[in-house]
């Protein structure tokens, strides 16, 4: 039987091939920190998993894209990934969220973990899991042990290179977050932007979301208020996937780039997912370490 510990990286996923590097970079960082602990990816999006499985069954696609790892082509959901690890003798797990905010996706992930933790067999030796830790998202979660405001400050410090890039262009830094129509995550995004302005006072940092609040029109108003005419757009997303290539800088009339250009701004862009930035990947490694310590899981 293999060692009992394992790490599961819970990710929404992406179908954009170049964007995969943002996901794989986090896995690489986790494996470097714990070289003797298996690390597995799990995509929480049913649709994205189906697309990868269809591609895996297409011989022509496999020939055209030899760079795609088998673990992506055969990626599973969170429950299947955990079940397969348990079946191989891994009973002490850390499930690390790679979400940005503790919103809908993280809520569902936590429900899965809490359900698995609640399993009680009549004989203790048949318990499927000895421990399951749950690592919090980038901007923290509801916790009495870890203040979310501290996590936001840490994330802002990790993105110093973004502020430097905007500074070098004499531009305001405008992030695109995902947001959610059904969860009040907007305040977290706004607090993150405020911490960025606090740390890098010479760079105007603003954020809006694809869904929910804050919206792009509020950013436009703030840019005009500060007399800023040059803008650097960057995804505040784990990967530079479809939202980045289409909604952020796409040629269509309703992309953020098109809207800002029509409004009279000079628009630059940097299409790099947060997962590609080593300092951000390190935050997820640290969150996994903290979750492991709290759950009594020894990572090696």
TrEMBL record:
InterPro entries: Anaerobic_Co-chelatase. The active site is at residue 178. This is Anaerobic cobalt chelatase. One of its GO terms (molecular function) is sirohydrochlorin cobaltochelatase activity. It comes from the Bacteria. The keyword Metal-binding applies. Co(2+) binds at residues 178, 211, 243. It comes from Desulfobulbus propionicus (strain ATCC 33891 / DSM 2032 / VKM B-1956 / 1pr3). GO terms for biological process: anaerobic cobalamin biosynthetic process. The lineage of its organism: Bacteria, Pseudomonadati, Thermodesulfobacteriota, Desulfobulbia, Desulfobulbales. Keywords: Cobalt, Metal-binding.
């Amino acid at each position: 039987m293999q060692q009992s510990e394992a790490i599961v990286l819970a990710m929404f996923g992406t179908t954009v091939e170049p964007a995969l590097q943002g996901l794989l970079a986090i896995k690489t960082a986790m494996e470097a920190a714990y070289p003797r602990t298996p690390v597995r990816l799990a995509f929480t999006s049913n649709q994205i998993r189906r697309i990868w499985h269809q591609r895996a069954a297409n011989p022509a696609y496999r020939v055209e894209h030899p760079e795609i790892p088998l673990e992506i082509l055969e990626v599973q959901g969170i429950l299947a990934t955990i079940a397969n690890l348990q079946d191989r003798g891994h009973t002490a797990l850390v499930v690390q969220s790679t979400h940005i905010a503790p919103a809908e996706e993280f809520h569902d992930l936590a429900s899965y973990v809490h359900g698995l933790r609640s399993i009680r067999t009549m004989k203790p030796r048949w318990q499927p899991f000895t421990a399951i830790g749950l690592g919090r998202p980038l901007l923290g979660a509801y916790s009495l042990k870890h203040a979310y405001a501290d996590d936001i400050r840490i994330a802002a410090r990790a993105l110093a290179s973004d502020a430097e890039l905007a500074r070098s262009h004499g531009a305001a830094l405008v992030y695109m977050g995902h947001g959610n129509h059904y969860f009040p995550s907007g305040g977290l995004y706004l607090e993150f932007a405020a911490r960025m302005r606090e740390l890098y006072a010479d760079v105007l940092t603003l954020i809006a979301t694809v869904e929910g609040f804050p919206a792009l029109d509020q950013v436009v108003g703030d840019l005009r208020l500060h007399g800023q005419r040059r803008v650097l757009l960057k995804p505040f997303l784990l990967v530079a996937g479809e939202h980045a290539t289409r909604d952020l800088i796409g040629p269509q009339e309703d992309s953020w780039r098109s809207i800002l250009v029509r409004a009279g701004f000079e628009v630059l862009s940097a299409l790099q997912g947060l997962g590609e930035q080593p300092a951000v990947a390190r935050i997820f490694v640290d969150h996994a370490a903290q979750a492991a310590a709290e759950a009594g899981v020894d990572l090696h």
